[in-house]
Design goal:
The chain is α+β, with helices and mostly antiparallel strands and about 250 residues long. The protein is built from 4 helices and 13 strands. It has a 13-stranded antiparallel sheet. A hairpin with a 4-residue loop joins β12 and β13 (about 230-240). The longest helix has about 40 residues, at about 1-40.
Amino acid sequence: MKYCIIMRCLVILAVFMFISSVSASVVGNDLKIRAEQATQGLKDLSLTCKVTYCNMQELKKVSKDFTQRYEIKTSTLMYKSPDKIKMEGKLGLIKMKMVINGDKKAFIIPAVGYNKKENIKNKPHKRQSDLDIGMFSDSLWRDYIVNKVEIEKGENGSVYKLTFCRENAKSRKMICWVDADSLKLLKQENFESDGRRIVRYVYSNHKRVDNCIWVPSKIDVYNNDEKLAGTIEYEDIEANTGISDSEFKL
């Protein structure tokens, strides 16, 4: 009798685990389809990026070179779906530019004749995408390995919790939270391989641009001490203006 009870419990547990894994897979696939359908109208995006707050000491706690991202106080960004990005800004009087076009990436400083190009096909950690801008789309499944999709109860309703990683850094997980109704990207956390959280991004003040994508106009960055380290705000957000491929020429 005892053996039968144990076996029955094991069978029930196995069935439960199978149903749970299937349900998680279904949720993830449904979300991917929703994201693709919701953002299929996005062809290109442009905006102005401004650093409105930064605490260099707190930024250093994220990583030694993290402060460099906040030294350029104002920059312009262009994105063209699915894999083109250009950022331009000035460090003092020196103009600099970063361009990603498919598997190619370049850093350009015209004043000193600097033009470094590299192939990033096998270097996913050097690739930026719409997720880095603060947008949620099906590109997450193309650029990362999505390990888990769950549904949680958030402050304002249900949210999707996605756990993912890069192909060349599988031990360093990332987690993002997405509003289940609107598919706004709400928050993202990045972790080291030892499980230690190193940074948290909180996205707010979202704007619906050209009725095809939600873009946050404010991004707050917190370090592992829960201290606000930096704030970036977007202005002049426009979508589908017909940005030419020539803008991303390397």
